[in-house]
């Protein structure tokens, strides 16, 4: 029963993490990475199997020892998550200083893809004879609009 609870907890944490990572705010992305990494660490615990004796040769039988690979992977995951969280927090703080928000903006490639999809949708609707208006609005202060430097 406890492993089922861990599997459910792992699924919920990873799902919440993915949802938050897909948001536009850097602070939510940081929280999403933290939740997702905790879910992955729980997945490592589940995949490691039952607990056992310390994996030190000579102290116990090899069959009774815990798997040391799981411990190494979890430690590596914790270190990588900590460094990524620190980097994202610094980036969010800098974005807040420069723009008074931490929202991730669209870049030129995103706008070009959206315009191409809108044009294709208009052609498709014109072929069907529908009168559909497609309005795409993009905000980017770097394109000569009202930039704050």
Structure description:
The chain is mainly alpha-helical. It is about 65% helix and about 0% strand. Helix 1 packs antiparallel against helix 2 (about 25-45) and helix 2 runs antiparallel to helix 3 (about 70-100). Keywords: Cell membrane, Membrane, Transmembrane, Transmembrane helix. It comes from Ancrocorticia populi. Belongs to the CPA3 antiporters (TC 2.A.63) subunit C family. This is Na(+)/H(+) antiporter subunit C.
Coarse structural class: mainly alpha
Radius of gyration: 24 Å
Number of strands: 0
Output the CATH class name of the largest domain.
Mainly Alpha
- Please tell me the overall pLDDT: 81
Domain count: the total is 2
Annotated CATH architecture of the largest domain: Orthogonal Bundle
> How many helices in DSSP terms?
4
CATH topology of the largest domain: Helix Hairpins
User: What's the order of the H and E elements?
Assistant: HHHH
Stretches where pLDDT is under 50 for at least 5 consecutive residues are 130-149
Specify the overall morphology: elongated
The level of helicity is 55-70%
What profile does the largest beta sheet have? none
- Portion in beta strands: under 5%
Chain-wise SSE layout:
Elements (H helix, E strand, L loop, with lengths): L1 H20 L4 H22 L20 H32 L8 H21 L21
Organism: Ancrocorticia populi
Family: Belongs to the CPA3 antiporters (TC 2.A.63) subunit C family.
Main location: membrane
């Amino acid at each position: 029963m406890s492993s089922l609870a861990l599997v459910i907890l792992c699924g919920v944490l990873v799902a919440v993490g993915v949802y938050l990572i897909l948001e536009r705010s850097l602070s939510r992305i940081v929280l999403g990475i933290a939740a997702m990494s905790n879910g992955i660490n729980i997945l490592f615990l589940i995949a490691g199997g039952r607990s056992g004796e310390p994996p030190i040769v000579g102290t116990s039988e090899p069959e009774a020892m815990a798997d040391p690979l799981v411990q190494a992977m979890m430690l590596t995951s914790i270190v990588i998550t900590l460094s990524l969280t620190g980097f994202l927090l610094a980036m969010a703080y800098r974005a807040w200083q420069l723009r008074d928000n931490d929202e991730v903006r669209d870049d030129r490639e995103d706008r070009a893809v959206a315009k191409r999809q809108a044009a294709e949708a208009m052609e498709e609707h014109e072929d069907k004879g529908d009168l559909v208006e497609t309005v795409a609005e993009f905000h980017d202060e770097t394109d000569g609009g009202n930039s704050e430097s």
